[in-house]
Amino acid sequence: MKLAIIANAVIYAAMFVSAVPGPISGSTNVAVRDPTMWYNAKLKKYFLFSTGVNIRLFHSPSLKGPWTRDGTVLKNCSKIDFGDRCNPWAPDVSFHNGTYNLFYSVSKVGSATGVIGLATSPSMKRGTWTDHGEVFRSRPGFIGIDPNYIDFEGPKLVFGSHLGGIFMASLRDNLLKPKYANMPRVNLAGGKDRAVEGAVVYKPKSSKYYYLFFSEGVTLLNGNKPPKGTEYKVLVGRSTSAKGPFVDKNGHKLTEKRTPATGSLVLGSHDNIYAPGGQSVFFDPVSGADVIVYHYVKNNNLTAPATLGINYLSFKTGWPVIVKDPPKKQTQKPTPPKAKPTPQPEKGGCKA
Ligand SMILES: *[C@@H]1O[C@H](CO)[C@@H](O)[C@H](O)[C@H]1NC(C)=O
Ligand SMILES: *[C@@H]1O[C@H](CO)[C@@H](O)[C@H](O)[C@H]1NC(C)=O
Ligand SMILES: *[C@@H]1O[C@H](CO)[C@@H](O)[C@H](O)[C@H]1NC(C)=O
């Protein structure tokens, strides 16, 4: 009896301790900000990109490492004629029509203007990237920053932060420019002075929902922690359409200004993980799992550079949950190639 109680207590303690699993092993010494990742099945390698001079590039044979730093994406600065063009931010990797795409942003300290650029590669390997420069830049009402590509009724880009919030707009088929000169766009989240950023719209194969992940909060201020609860974290909303409206677990739209703020927590500070954010999400064909990639600060070393975090996600409950192991692979028939959706121009759009 007593033993059983002790055993239960131990099990309970174990459950409590493992409430949020730590990042999968192999990445605790990889310094990155705003990481984004994709798998090249031909090369059997994961490629990882991060904010930094000319966009930092890493590769690994496994999600568990070892990660090899392998130079940069851009040979010598972006072609974009603006701001700190040698130090692009917040890259976003994706695969479209046989080509790997890396959208990135260029900004200028003390300016609310940002420019989104694109580099492409047939393999993601070092030395294979071509920079195409500017796709579009900030306009009144939005900031051209934090790009995220998604194929939904044609190529779309999710972008923005702070001023105006997060938006989605159509790109041309070659992804090099907006589809419409006046850039009609849908407001997905934030705005009304709410500083949400780093948005990613992702649809798990196992779900009927699209999920909008975003970051909000502040990170260390001169090495000091901000007031508890205000630190950087990853939040989410979901929708049956990539164009929204996205709602949180309370059914509140992410575009609504409310107190407490909208968005349901996916990943906050826990154990040695402090102020996680700058996330991206991708499907890992090796484990068959949806994977979230982010940066965080180590609680036991607040002065160390931000570190790479990788975790498996489960959407079984209808909401993303960080899980220790990849959810069981679903046995599914090979899906036939997707039929091309009929293009649906947004209201008010005029062809560029
Ligand atoms: C790299 O770009 C910078 C900025 O345009 C330029 O000043 C420098 O000469 C370039 N370096 C090389 C090796 O091309
Ligand atoms: C897809 O790629 C092929 C080969 O590079 C190219 O000819 C074609 O125009 C591309 N299609 C689109 C929609 O970009
Ligand atoms: C903290 O991080 C710095 C930079 O990565 C490293 O040099 C130092 O050894 C770390 N300190 C501890 C206690 O881990």
From TrEMBL:
InterPro entries: GH43_arabinanases, Glyco_hydro_43, Glyco_hydro_43_endo_a_Ara-ase, Glyco_hydro_beta-prop_sf
Signal sequence residues: 1-19
Compositional bias ranges of the Pro residues kind: 334-344
UniProt keywords, alphabetically: Glycosidase, Hydrolase, Signal
Region (Disordered): 324-352
EC class name: hydrolase
GO molecular function: arabinan endo-1,5-alpha-L-arabinosidase activity
Lineage: Eukaryota, Fungi, Dikarya, Basidiomycota, Agaricomycotina
Annotated GO biological process: arabinan catabolic process
Site, Important for catalytic activity, responsible for pKa modulation of the active site Glu and correct orientation of both the proton donor and substrate: residue positions: D146
Pathway(s) the chain acts in: Glycan metabolism; L-arabinan degradation
Catalysed reactions, semicolon-separated: Endohydrolysis of (1->5)-alpha-arabinofuranosidic linkages in (1->5)-arabinans
EC number: 3.2.1.99
Record keyword Mitochondrion present: no
Family: Belongs to the glycosyl hydrolase 43 family.
Organism: Exidia glandulosa HHB12029
Domain of life the protein comes from: Eukaryota
One Pfam family named in its UniProt record: Glyco_hydro_43
Active-site residues, as the UniProt record annotates them: D34 (proton acceptor), E197 (proton donor)
Entry protein name: Arabinan endo-1,5-alpha-L-arabinosidase
